[in-house]
Amino acid sequence: MEYKIAVLKGDGIGPEIIAETIKVLDKVAGKYGHKFVYQRGYLGGESIDKYGVPYSEETSRICRNSDAILLGAVGGPKWNEIEAYKRPEKGLLAIRKELAVYTNLRPAILFKELRSASPLKDEIVEDGLDVMIVRELTGGIYFGPREYSEEKAVDTMPYTRNEIERIARKAFEIARNRNKKLTSVDKHNVLDTSKLWRKIVNEVAKDYPDVEVSHMYVDNAAMQLIINPRQFDIILTENMFGDILSDEASMLTGSLGMLPSASLGDEKLGLYEPCHGSAPDIAGQNIANPIATIMSAAMMLRYSFDLEDEAIAIEKAIEEVLSQGYRTADIYTEGTIKISTVEMGTQIANKI
Predict the structure, then answer these.
(1) Are 75 and 278 in contact (CB under 8 A)?
(2) Which pairs from 145-151 meet CB under 8 Å and 24+ separation?
(3) How far apart are CA 1 and CA 305, in angstroms?
(4) Which of 27, 240, 286, 314 fits as disulfide partner to 352, beta carbons 3.0 to 4.6 Å?
């Protein structure tokens, strides 16, 4: 089979981690008889440098004509002083909105080989960790009306029934294919949007009687992720809460460099990227961890291409490399083998 992949390398460490991910995808293609056709686009700072805007019409066309989109990371101090509406991060918000990828899946998986890299006590994570955060991605405070002056700033968090219902149904469907347990996270005691959120989640839950549903305030959820993360299977939440909680969950896995993500809508076209930023302080040093991006590519094979065996092959290759003691600097501990970005990509590709 032939698949078209839009490749947006992005800024900072983006080009480095994308290069290793393509190395792994090419190995999968050769082993399983597929052809991945890569189409180069630009997003964020690299797009500002090339087109003067963080998300151009040319890149939009390339993405819309692809089967999936693979993204590195965007942003960096180089573009900090330009107008807010032209900042690299605006390109990320724009592409999510245009493609209507309202479901963001962020699996926080702690491989047993990385228990020593997790800040949690061994008894809390001795059997590993596998939590799926389902984050609403195109609504809420990041997209609501706002105003700014030197004396006052306002950000609003609007949500409609349709936005809440569609993300809830996605989360319940995923829960059915996992452990049939869903925790909806909100701030029901303070926010009107959370009151509507909880009401609609409870309505949708009636269509999924086989899924156990509970509700939790976001501040308590943040605490519970540290105290007892294994109580969670699916965490469903809105845009800003999901952004914060998934970054917190990433550290439980040993490093932000271990957290992949998939952004999906109602079609097969999806946006796949690591949850970490562009890390400009280590860009070009060949020390960045490419695993989150490589795991994002596995999610691409699973969700956009329906290539489950190939996705599992990547995940098993990562596990095997970790079991052999290979680590990039961010997950290195005494007694393991520190390797570079390029070496990690090569090791994983060789295990496919």
Answers:
(1) yes
(2) none
(3) 10
(4) 27
288: closest CA among 10, 6, 2?
Answer: 10
Q: Is the pLDDT of residue 127 over 80?
A: no
CB 320 within 8 A of CB 350: no
Whose tokens are 């098993």? That residue is: 316
Summarize the confidence of residues 306-318 as an average pLDDT: 97
Q: Is the pLDDT confidence value at 123 over 70?
A: no
Decide if 32 contacts 3 (C-beta within 8 A): no
Give the whole-number percent of the chain exceeding pLDDT 90: 83
Same domain, 211 and 272: no
Flag whether pLDDT at 258 surpasses 80: yes
Domain count, the chain: 2
Report yes or no on whether pTM surpasses 0.85: yes
Range 289-298 average pLDDT: 97
Note whether 181 and 241 are same-domain residues: yes
CB distance 337 to 327 below 8 Å: yes
CATH of the domain at 163: 3.40.718.10
Which of 221, 252, 283 is a domain's end point?
A: 252
Q: Is residue 127 part of a domain?
A: yes
Mean per-residue pLDDT, 153-172: 97
Is residue 63 domain-resident?
Answer: yes
DSSP assignments along 145-177, one per residue = -EEE-SS-EEE-----HHHHHHHHHHHHHHHHT
* 290/42 Cα distance (integer angstroms): 19
Residue whose entry in the numeric block shows the structure tokens 């086989």: 210
Report which DSSP code applies to 325. T
Beta strands 103-110 and 129-136 are antiparallel
pLDDT digits (tens, 9 = 90+) for 69-112: 999 999 999 998 888 768 999 999 899 999 999 999 999 888 87
Residues marked as catalytic: 142, 187, 219, 243, 247
- The boundaries of the domain holding residue 135 are 119-252
> Helix (H, G, I), strand (E, B), or coil: what is residue 179?
coil
Tell me, rounded to whole angstroms, the distance of Cα 147 from its chain centroid: 29
Supply the angle between the helices 341-350 and 308-323 in degrees, to the nearest 10.
120
Residue 126: pLDDT band (50, 70, 90) is low
Boundary residue ending a domain (226, 252, 278): 252
